[in-house]
Design a protein that fits this description.
The protein has about 290 residues and is of the alpha/beta class. A 7-stranded mixed beta sheet has the order 10-9-8-11-12-14-13, sandwiched between helices. Helix 4 runs parallel beside helix 5.
């Protein structure tokens, strides 16, 4: 029986100063970029993964040629098979503890005092290993410590829906998750079922703020957007417009030194949001913003 290829993977070690060019390439190709391990210090190598979803528009050979131009190596993408990667990933990542939250595979048990989230797949963004996901969870956890309460949330570019699910489990927030990548949406919906929260979290395949469901459910008192710098800038007007007065936006997916100031200038300087808190790790940033007017 022929196995179905659902994606192609590029996996390599690169220097920290070279991460941005691979990240930009992934963004241009509408591919999933994951930085699975990092070490502090310029010149240290980090492990990156780029997943290119298999469809009728993907030219594997052309992708390999373009990757060779920025990597200076011979590139041959590795196939990711439909059933194999799901099964292999059940136990492939260590438990992740961020504040109140404990994100783990099926093989582990969460401490009784933690909010448990069981995640069987890691192909899409959002297993929590990446510093940006950890940053979003940390900032949300800090808000809860300060007494913030939320009722209606949006997870824009939700990936595997880690952020929406954590907030829902923490305080039963109704959440809408949106992603343009169909594979991520399928994984997210599987995760909802596995965690018994499919009734209060809805994940849809849609084109960001252009999807009418996003407008219909607005305004939101909590918005997560853990994506990349350019999409965050492009959607800034729509994101601020859909945020309720007093609402919170937690944004991430951008570099601390090269990109954070540009994001803050757009959301704070141009649109008047207030910077409440920030989280920086492994050269990545997450920021917490409030809409006061």
């Amino acid at each position: 029986m022929t196995k179905k290829v659902v994606a192609w993977q590029y996996k390599n070690k690169v220097k920290q100063e070279d991460i941005s060019k691979f990240e930009l390439f992934a963004e241009m190709m509408d591919a999933t970029f994951d930085l699975s391990h990092s070490e502090d210090g310029i010149g240290k190598e980090v492990d990156i993964n780029i997943f290119f979803e298999q469809d009728e528009f993907l030219n594997k050979g052309a992708v390999e040629v373009e990757l060779e131009k920025i990597s200076d190596d011979y590139i041959e993408l590795d196939p990711i098979y439909e059933h194999d990667w799901q099964q292999d990933c059940v136990t492939s990542f260590p438990a992740i503890e961020v504040g109140t939250f404990f994100i783990h595979s099926f093989e582990e048990e969460a401490p009784a005092e933690k909010i448990s989230l069981r995640i069987p797949a890691r192909m899409a963004f959002g297993t929590g290993e990446h510093a940006t996901t950890k940053g979003c969870l940390y900032l949300y956890d800090e808000l809860k410590k300060k007494g913030y309460k939320f009722k209606n949330g949006l997870d824009m570019g939700c990936g595997s829906a880690i952020l929406a699910m954590c907030a829902n489990k923490c305080e039963n927030v109704d959440f809408l998750g949106v992603d343009i990548d169909l594979t991520s949406v399928d994984i997210a919906n599987e995760n909802l079922v596995e965690n018994n929260i499919a009734s209060s979290v809805t994940i849809i395949h849609g084109d960001g703020f252009n999807d009418p469901e996003v407008t219909r459910k607005a305004p939101y008192d909590l918005v997560f957007a853990n994506i990349l710098k350019n999409p965050l800038l492009e959607m800034s007007r729509d994101l601020v417009a859909c945020l309720d007065k007093g609402g919170i936006a937690i944004l991430s997916g951008f570099k601390e030194i090269e990109q954070k100031a540009e994001i803050i200038n757009k959301y704070v300087g141009e649109f008047g949001l207030v910077l409440v808190d920030e989280f920086n790790q492994d050269s990545w940033s997450a920021i917490c913003l409030k809409k006061e007017n």
